[in-house]
Amino acid sequence: MMKKRVTILGSTGSIGQSTLDVIARNHADYEVFALVAGRNVAQMVKDCQTFNPRYATLSCAQSNAVLKEQLSALNLATKVIDYDTDIALVCQHEDVDTVMSAIVGAAGLVPTLSAIEAAKTVLLANKESLVMSGQLFMDKVRQHGATLLPIDSEHNAIFQCMPEAIRDQRAQQLSQHGVTKILLTGSGGPFRERPLNTFQDITVAEAVAHPNWSMGQKISVDSATMMNKGLEFIEAKWLFNANTRDIEVVIHPQSMIHSMVQYSDGSVLAQMGQPDMRTPIAHALAYPQRINAGVEPLNFAAMKDFSFYAPDFERYPNLKLAIDACELGQSATTVVNAANEQAVAAFLAGQISFNDIYAVNAQTLSDMTLNYSDDLEGILACDADARSHAQQIIHARAK
Ligand code: NAD
Ligand code: MG
Questions:
Q1: C-alpha of 371 from chain center
Q2: Does 15 sit in the ligand 1 pocket, CB within 6 Å?
Q3: What pLDDT sits at residue 90?
Q4: Which is it for strands 257-263 and 268-272: parallel, antiparallel or unpaired?
Q5: Whole-angstrom Cα distance, residue 139 to residue 192?
Q6: What pLDDT score was predicted for residue 393?
Q7: 0.85 cut: is pTM over it?
């Protein structure tokens, strides 16, 4: 069998590093074609030494220049290319089989779409790109015949529990295949039991300390506000051609069940495992085969608690906001995603409080006129306008 050649977008991040870990464990079957990231020169140099990719690039031009110097000093064969002009090359190159989309935020949209347009197998971790452009994104997948495999642990779990016909994104009706509900599970994050009247004092360190998963900073804050589950709700709608009433959010603090699919005969299929992203990454890399992910199986005898309950929207107003935006349509979800990226960045920078994240998101959504077109131009304009509006609100609230 030929080795599968993989381009990793966001290689220095949490998902990128887990992907490299799985590839290293299965080096007879996979090789790294290109590594792409933001500004982490040291990690990029290290990974180029280990994986010897054909191409590498960093989106920060200054960092990319340093990378080029360092790789040439080390005599590595990896060619450092320009991010802005050549990113499509490593997403669309004929020698590439699989593109891991794991850049954080809206910055991942354009490279992910270019991989889709070249009919690659796209492993989607970057949920923000699908949330901001849902219909366009899925239309392109179908139009170009790309294969889209979800990496988000919930969506990967749902994918594994879905009937075959739903898995290939041909816009099948869930009900025609006996599916009555998608049960989207979430841990409830670090503030599941924290008294609501202390939320204004939440620090950045508290917000990024997730009880079960180790992740990048942005998604960690999103998990604390449960905006992450809101974005995942929108993601599930697009990936599985679902209506908002087909999806139910269930809090499951132990993160052992990664999501479930309920059928008309009363069956509920769940996918379970350790909270370790190497499982969905390995699943998608090898699909429909199975490979070693380096993840220990669950030990059921050692499990103490196994609990479930409905989310409290007073505790998680961002979750409600995202579900409402999903009902409102494409521009609303683009706006919420953009406002949230700005608000989370401002919270991480110490400019606004934890509660302000919701205030910024809700105010941006209610202020904006949602009349943008659903083509890429309209989506990018909506995203840009929402960001500048959110930034004004942040400025007014800044400590
Ligand atoms: P992270 O912050 O650890 O890594 C982000 C990566 O993107 C880094 O390599 C960074 O250099 C790169 N990057 C940032 N800005 C960039 C830009 N403008 N251009 C190019 N590259 C840029 O984030 P993460 O936790 O690995 O998450 C990545 C994506 O996967 C996010 O969309 C997140 O929602 C999703 N995801 C993550 C997890 C997880 O467990 N970490 C789970 C599900 C989904
Ligand atoms: Mg998830």
A1: 26
A2: yes
A3: 97
A4: antiparallel
A5: 37
A6: 98
A7: yes
Question: Which residue's C-alpha comes closest to atom 13 of ligand 1?
Answer: 38
> 């990967």: which residue's tokens?
156
Report the nearest atom of ligand 1 relative to the CA of 15.
26
Q: How far apart are CA 118 and CA 194, in angstroms?
A: 47
Q: Are 129 and 107 in contact (CB under 8 A)?
A: no
φ/ψ of 39, rounded to 5, equals -145, 5
The DSSP call for residue 247 is: E
How many angstroms is it from 125 CA to the middle of ligand 1?
8
Q: Which of 249, 264, 224, 234 is nearest to 308 (CA)?
A: 249
Domain 4-150 of CATH type 1.20.1250.20: no
Peptide bond into 288 cis (omega under 30): yes
Give me 177's structure tokens.
């295949």
Q: Got the DSSP string for 157-180?
A: HHHHHS-HHHHT-S---TGGGTEE
CATH of domain 329-399: 1.10.1740.10
pLDDT of residue 339: 98
Q: Left if phi > 0, otherwise alpha if psi is -120 to 50, otherwise beta: which for 259?
A: left
In the chain, count H helices and then E strands.
16, 11
Q: Which ligand 1 atom is the nearest neighbour of the CA of 153?
A: 43
Residues 322, 132: contact at Cβ < 8 Å?
no
Amino acid at 53: P
Encode 375-398: b = buried (16+ Cβ within 10 Å), e = exposed: eeebbbebbebbbebbbebbeebe
Question: In this predicted structure, what is the pLDDT of residue 172?
Answer: 83
Q: 41, 358, 384, 67: which is closest to 225 by C-alpha?
A: 358
Residues in the chain, pLDDT under 70: none
Place of tokens 């299929």: 269
Exposure pattern of 111-132 as b/e (b: 16+ CB <10 Å)?
A: bbbbbbbbebbbbbbbbbbbbb
Q: Which of 8, 11, 12, 14 to mutate to test the pocket of ligand 1 (most atoms within 8 A of CB)?
A: 14
The residue extents of the domains of the chain are 4-150, 152-324, 329-399
